[in-house]
Design brief:
- The structure is a single chain.
- The chain is an all-alpha fold and 201 residues long.
- The protein contains 9 helices and no strands.
């Protein structure tokens, strides 16, 4: 039988976990609501899990009042995950448009979003669109989403800033840019995710 000290410790841990879970929507709830427009069920599941994980990290950091390098670690992880979520949502949205021949702009026709010429054209077909989309970059998604009016100019700027922060997942990029991570940056990045969810719907 656990000692009083062990029971007390477990009760404290349980209370902390419940605090962290409070106000965070479950993965299943996120799949059914925020991300119900994502076509691929596997992608929908992992986007929801990633979003849940970022919110969980936020609550953990809040619960233990992290500061200094610990706070940087919490914020950086959230921001990188939020960037990845936006990338996935834009990719899914644009693939949906290409497969249904609903695109109205021209940037999606080339690898560099410039007028067709040389070897930059993309031969989109319904059968190969999914595989071709996997070769496109976050930058390309943003450029094409702007061209298709999926993103407003202001939203395009916000997602671009998030893309640059997401790229600091590469330590060499972080060393080059010397990006600073602070608490409100996670909140701003979360706002960009909410905007991207709304506009891709």
């Amino acid at each position: 039988m656990p000692t009083i000290q062990e029971q007390f410790g477990q009760a404290a841990i349980n209370a902390f976990v419940e605090f962290c879970r409070a106000d965070i929507r479950s993965v299943a709830d996120l799949e059914a609501n925020e991300f119900n427009h994502v076509t691929d069920p596997a992608l929908r599941r992992y986007v929801a899990q990633t979003f849940y994980g970022a919110r969980w990290l936020y609550k953990l950091g809040l619960g233990v009042l992290v500061t200094g390098d610990e706070a940087i670690a919490h914020v950086r992880t959230q921001v990188i995950d939020y960037g990845s979520i936006c990338e996935a949502l834009l990719s899914d949205c644009l693939l949906h448009g290409i497969q249904r021949n609903a695109m109205t702009g021209t940037k999606y026709l080339t690898k560099d979003c410039r007028p067709v010429g040389g070897h930059n054209a993309i031969a989109w077909t319904p059968a190969t669109a999914g595989a071709e989309m996997k070769n496109r970059s976050f930058w390309w998604f943003i450029e094409v989403a702007g061209d298709e009016a999926v993103l407003t100019p202001a939203q395009k700027g916000s997602v671009t800033r998030l893309r640059k922060l997401r790229n600091t997942v590469h330590i060499t990029e972080l060393a080059t840019t010397q990006a600073r991570y602070y608490r409100t940056l996670a909140k701003l990045s979360l706002g960009t995710v909410h905007d991207t969810i709304a506009t891709t719907k």
